């Protein structure tokens, strides 16, 4: 049995690095852990997937591959922890009016408005829920994220939560125009959306667990999952709903703006997922839209 | 800012003509008309400046003589960004994703300076810094739009190509200096009058301080201007560096 020779060259310098596979290369130099390596057949082409088999690749008896360093990578769990810890903590800094944020006489005071405390509770539990899901619920497929992207995402999450928190916890905050009625209705919708979002995550999770056959998610006995009749990505629908209700609860324009941005991003993701489902499953229900029932 | 860096791929296409996905006849006609009109417009502004200078005998207050055409033609450049979005109908032979961002940014910064600073803060209109950036923009745009016109007609004189990729070396810093000085001059008036600013408390729990915003804009020039400038310099090497290989007049 004769194994093809595999030589590996650096994509930029064409220097021979010369190892059999990612794991072997990693053993020689632990700096280049497998997630960081990209191997390609063409220096300018796409990277080979980790599960590709050498025998099936279009190579002769000597396989030449090109190596590219993808830069430092972080696993998905770490990524999400980094992204969510920030908003959780920064909001609290503003809620407790840590010194130097607001005028000195307000340091460590609390707002007279109950809605401000409620908003803090909602925001905090939203991110605790996300952290819990990241650690215990989500099962991430292969893959990592480059450090640069993580930094950018963290700046986004941390920055926006600081901006929102600044206004909601400001000494000059104005409570909603329709008072308790507005706050209570918004709170109810918020709780429903959070539960909904959590249910969908559990449902998607169970989908993964069941063997090799790929299936698309369907409504279960849980009423929150009935949104699957209408949309491909109800988790995003519920997420948008939660943020819309939070905007109404706080009646704060920066929150509404943040919600808008999140909505745009999630719509892009939902449309992509929707398209992928349609492509993969011939019997995919045609009633379903991507993120907003009957509309989007 | 002085030159328009993102829109240079047409020249690159001239230098190394690969498989060009050229625009259709109707799109080309539209683009040619657009570019001719823009060239003419900026020529009108240039002539207006010269005539006003000769009439008054001084550099001061020339802004008022070209205020309307400046607003019209600079704002008209927004159409250019829209065109970049559809690859078939562009000023370029080949679309590069970054050029939408660069061109869009370029145009938005110019429109911002025209309307949100110079038009909005009357007191800066008599500043000399306004003349500085208006002159830089005028010369740049005349060269740039005639460059596009000739490129589209596949008859680009080397002189125009050379001018497009050389004048920016001086015009770009000149324009940036004028812009920054103008924004700086506007600051005290903005702070005094609270122009475009919203304070707390208000019903929607939002605030915006235009004064701080302008300062941030000024700081943003620090990372952005060198990037755009060196991008143009690299383009220049690519485009004009091949001058020995190709004939002078296309």
Automatic annotation (TrEMBL), chain A:
GO cellular component, one term: membrane
Keywords recorded for this protein, A-Z: Endoplasmic reticulum, Membrane, Oxidoreductase, Transmembrane, Transmembrane helix
Ranges that cross the membrane: 74-96, 155-173, 185-204, 224-249, 255-272
Protein name: Trans-2,3-enoyl-CoA reductase-like 2a
InterPro entries according to UniProt: 3-oxo-5_a-steroid_4-DH_C, SRD5A/TECR, TECR-like_N
Family, similarity comment: Belongs to the steroid 5-alpha reductase family.
Membrane topology qualifier: Multi-pass membrane protein
Cellular localisation: Endoplasmic reticulum; Membrane
GO-annotated molecular function: oxidoreductase activity, acting on the CH-CH group of donors
3-oxo-5-alpha-steroid 4-dehydrogenase C-terminal domain sequence ranges: 144-296
Sequence ranges assigned to domain TECR-like N-terminal in this UniProt record: 5-69
Endoplasmic reticulum keyword on record: yes
Primary location group: endoplasmic reticulum
Superkingdom in the source lineage: Eukaryota
An individual GO BP term: very long-chain fatty acid biosynthetic process
From TrEMBL, chain B:
Annotated TM spans: 27-50, 165-190, 210-230
Keyword DNA repair included in the entry's annotation: no
Catalytic activity, EC: 4.2.1.134
Sequence segments annotated as region (Disordered): 1-22
Main location class: endoplasmic reticulum
Keyword Cytoplasm assigned: no
Gene Ontology molecular-function annotations: very-long-chain (3R)-3-hydroxyacyl-CoA dehydratase activity
Topology term for the membrane: Multi-pass membrane protein
Pathway the protein acts in: Lipid metabolism; fatty acid biosynthesis
InterPro entries according to UniProt: Tyr_Pase-like_PTPLA
GO CC aspect terms: endoplasmic reticulum membrane
Enzyme class: lyase
Gene Ontology process terms (BP): fatty acid elongation; sphingolipid biosynthetic process; very long-chain fatty acid biosynthetic process
Compartmental location: Endoplasmic reticulum membrane; Membrane
Reactions accelerated catalytically: (3R)-hydroxyhexadecanoyl-CoA = (2E)-hexadecenoyl-CoA + H2O; a very-long-chain (3R)-3-hydroxyacyl-CoA = a very-long-chain (2E)-enoyl-CoA + H2O
Function summary: Catalyzes the third of the four reactions of the long-chain fatty acids elongation cycle. This endoplasmic reticulum-bound enzymatic process, allows the addition of two carbons to the chain of long- and very long-chain fatty acids/VLCFAs per cycle. This enzyme catalyzes the dehydration of the 3-hydroxyacyl-CoA intermediate into trans-2,3-enoyl-CoA, within each cycle of fatty acid elongation. Thereby, it participates to the production of VLCFAs of different chain lengths that are involved in multiple biological processes as precursors of membrane lipids and lipid mediators.
Official protein name in the record: Very-long-chain (3R)-3-hydroxyacyl-CoA dehydratase
Organism from which the protein derives: Sphaeramia orbicularis
């Amino acid at each position: 049995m004769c194994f093809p020779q595999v030589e590996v060259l650096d994509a930029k310098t064409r220097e021979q690095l010369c190892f059999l596979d990612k794991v072997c290369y990693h053993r020689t130099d632990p700096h280049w852990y497998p997630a960081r390596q990209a191997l390609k057949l063409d220096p300018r082409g796409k990277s080979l997937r980790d599960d590709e088999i050498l025998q099936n690749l279009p190579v002769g008896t000597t396989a030449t591959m090109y190596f590219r360093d993808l830069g430092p990578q972080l696993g998905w769990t770490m990524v999400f922890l980094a992204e969510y810890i920030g908003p959780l903590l920064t909001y609290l800094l503003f809620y407790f009016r840590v010194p130097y944020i607001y005028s000195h006489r307000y340091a460590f005071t609390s707002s007279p408005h109950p809605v401000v405390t409620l908003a803090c509770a909602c925001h905090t539990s939203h991110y605790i829920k996300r952290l819990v899901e990241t650690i215990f619920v989500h099962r991430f497929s292969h893959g990592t994220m480059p450090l640069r992207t993580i930094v950018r995402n963290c700046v986004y999450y941390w920055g926006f939560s600081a901006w929102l928190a600044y206004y909601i916890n400001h000494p000059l905050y104005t409570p909603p125009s329709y008072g308790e009625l507005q706050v209570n209705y918004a709170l109810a919708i918020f709780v429903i959306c959070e539960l909904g979002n959590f249910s969908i995550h559990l449902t998607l999770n169970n989908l993964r667990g069941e063997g090799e056959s790929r299936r698309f998610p369907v409504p279960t006995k849980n009423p929150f999952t009935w949104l699957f009749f209408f949309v491909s990505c109800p988790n995003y629908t519920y997420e948008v709903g939660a943020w819309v209700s939070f905007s109404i609860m706080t009646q704060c324009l920066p929150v509404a703006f943040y919600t808008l941005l999140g909505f745009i991003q999630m719509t892009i993701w939902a449309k992509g997922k929707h398209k992928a489902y349609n492509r993969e499953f011939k019997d995919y229900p045609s009633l379903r839209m991507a993120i907003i029932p009957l509309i989007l | 800012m002085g030159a328009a860096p993102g829109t240079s791929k047409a020249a690159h296409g001239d230098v190394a003509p690969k498989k060009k996905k050229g625009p259709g006849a109707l799109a080309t006609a539209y683009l040619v008309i657009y570019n001719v009109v823009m060239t003419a417009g900026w020529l009108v502004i240039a002539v207006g400046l010269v005539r006003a200078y000769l009439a008054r005998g001084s550099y001061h207050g020339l802004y008022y003589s070209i205020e309307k055409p400046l607003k019209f033609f600079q704002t008209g450049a927004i159409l250019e960004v829209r065109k970049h979005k559809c690859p078939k109908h562009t000023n370029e032979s080949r679309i590069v994703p970054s050029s939408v961002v660069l061109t869009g940014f370029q145009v938005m910064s110019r429109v911002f300076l025209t309307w949100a600073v110079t038009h909005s803060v009357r007191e800066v209109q008599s500043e000399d810094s306004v003349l500085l950036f208006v002159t830089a923009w005028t010369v740049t745009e005349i060269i740039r739009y005639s460059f596009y016109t000739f490129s589209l007609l596949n008859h680009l004189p080397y002189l125009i190509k050379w001018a497009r990729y050389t004048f920016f070396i001086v015009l770009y810093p000149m324009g940036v200096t004028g812009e920054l000085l103008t924004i700086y001059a506007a600051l005290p008036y903005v702070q005094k009058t609270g122009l475009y600013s919203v304070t707390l408390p208000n019903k929607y729990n939002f605030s915006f301080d235009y004064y701080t915003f302008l300062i941030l804009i000024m700081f943003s020039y620090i990372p952005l201007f060198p990037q755009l400038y060196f991008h143009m310099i690299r383009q220049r090497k690519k485009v004009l560096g091949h001058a020995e290989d190709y004939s002078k007049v296309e």
